[in-house]
Amino acid sequence: MLKLKNLSVSIEGKKILEDISFDFRAGKTYALMGPNGSGKSTLASAIMGHPHYKISKASKIILRVTPTPQSRRLASSPWKGAQGKNKNIKNLSPDKRAKLGIFLSFQTPITLPGVTVFELLQLALEKQIDPVTLHGRVKAYAKELRIKDELLKRSLNDGFSGGEKKKLEALQAVLLQPRLALFDEIDTGVDVDALKTISQFLKKHLPKETTTVFITHSTRLLRYIKPEEVLIMKMGRLVKTGREALAKKIEREGFDKM
Ligand code: ADP
Ligand code: MG
Predict the structure, then answer these.
(1) Position in ligand 1 atom list of the atom nearest CA 185
(2) Whole-model pTM?
(3) Most exposed residue of 120, 142, 150, 240, measured as fewest CB within 10 angstroms of its CB?
(4) 16, 41, 47: which to mutate for ligand 1, most atoms within 8 A of CB?
(5) Nearest ligand by distance to the CA of 184
(6) 209 Cα–ligand 2 center, Å
(7) How many Cα neighbours within 13 Å face the side chain of 82?
């Protein structure tokens, strides 16, 4: 559903990703692993369309466009006319990519003073779900995730703990029902109980056809999410792909011998 072809990315003249080609398939779960600084977050940013990163001319990011239940209703959806087709999204802005069903949960979610999670979701959904229904859904999901009611009324991520921020990211992902969900270190700064809650929540509520990519530098998360494929990055390159056995090998030996 998302094909990367010879993806090379640089920032301020410094090459960070080099010649990455990979085909993410619909409905599959992936773990993207690698030591700190290997380029995992950069890859996620490049897929989402972060404007700071320069993508080389030869690179292609091909998305097979299938509208989500949400995007189907959006007046400003860019998928119209492109449905069922493969589209090179390399030059699309992040908001357009989001409307095509790509979701990125940041490694460090930013604080939005003056904006509640509810207001943010209402905007993202272009008021296609009526406020009362949306409120009800947010509250029900928050309860499942054991998020305190009080947090829903506060500015997004303002004074939230690491675990609370990541729970809110999971909640947003589920409400937006993306086609491709990228979770950048959803496990970092999260205790075991919260990690279990988040993993179970995502597994239960993300649509079956959603492609999910969990980015992590630790094997801890793999106990809760069972990836069908594991990708290893090192120094900006995709160096290995494999199945569960590869994850086990990393658990035993670390990334050094990859
Ligand atoms: P990871 O997520 O695997 O830890 P990153 O994608 O964050 O790795 O970083 C990959 C490399 O790119 C690192 O060497 C990092 O220092 C560099 N890098 C990332 N973002 C920037 C930036 N905005 N400016 C300069 N260098 C950057
Ligand atoms: Mg990172």
Answers:
(1) 2
(2) 0.94
(3) 150
(4) 16
(5) 2
(6) 26
(7) 19
